[in-house]
Amino acid sequence: MAQLLQPETGTTDPRILRSRRMLMDALAILLIKKEFEDISVQEIADEATLNRATFYLHYPDKNALLQAMTGVRFRDLIERRAITFTDCHGALRSIALGVCDYLAESTGCPTQLARMPPQISIIPVVEDMFKEGLALHGTAPGVDAALMATTAAWAVFGAARRWFQTPNRIPAEEMAAKIEIMVSPVLFGASQ
């Protein structure tokens, strides 16, 4: 899972990166003003000073843009902590710590990201990270890697959310270690 921090864009073309950043920034601005459900693709494109066709060159819909925006934010959190993935088990702990940080920082988020349902925000990002890791290392015969990634993502998120909602909670690093212990058998028991 050492390659899990690849950028969402998969490109280094500055024009593509610029357009995607402009779309993400536009959505962030609009989320301050209105509910996500009430924002149209046209409004996002207008705010970004791009045309609607350009939006669709980069994202199939506004949910995909939100997921990409969340992914960038999540990866930034991991990078700020200087978290590195030295092996699969270290990756699991790092991802768990990143989710704890994401939840803790979402409360101070000036946008609606804090109120977004997890299924359209952080869980797909974590799920994709697990899918990438499982693709690198494989799974046992008969194991559905996508289902395994989904199960692990929800388990990490659920434990981190429970931690976040607990008064006088333990430090995020301790919780990440506990999550690693709980989720490792599920995730790595299905590996080859």
Set out the fold topology.
Layout lengths: L13 H20 L7 H7 L4 H7 L3 H19 L7 H19 L15 H16 L7 H21 L6 H17 L4
Structure characterization notes:
Helix content is 66%, strand content 0%. With 192 residues, the protein is mostly helical. The protein has two domains: 10-59, Arc Repressor Mutant, subunit A; 67-188, Tetracycline Repressor, domain 2. The two termini are 14 Å apart.
Distance between the termini: 14 Å
What's the β-strand tally?
0
Radius of gyration: 17 Å
| CATH class type of the largest domain | Mainly Alpha
pLDDT average, as an integer?
81
Classify the fold: give the CATH topology of the largest domain. Tetracycline Repressor, domain 2
Strand-residue proportion: under 5%
What CATH architecture of the largest domain would you give? Orthogonal Bundle
Low-confidence stretches: 1-9
Shape: globular
How many strands, what sense, and barrel or not for the largest sheet? none
The proportion of residues forming helix, as a percent range, comes to 55-70%
Query: What's the helix-strand series?
Result: HHHHHHHH
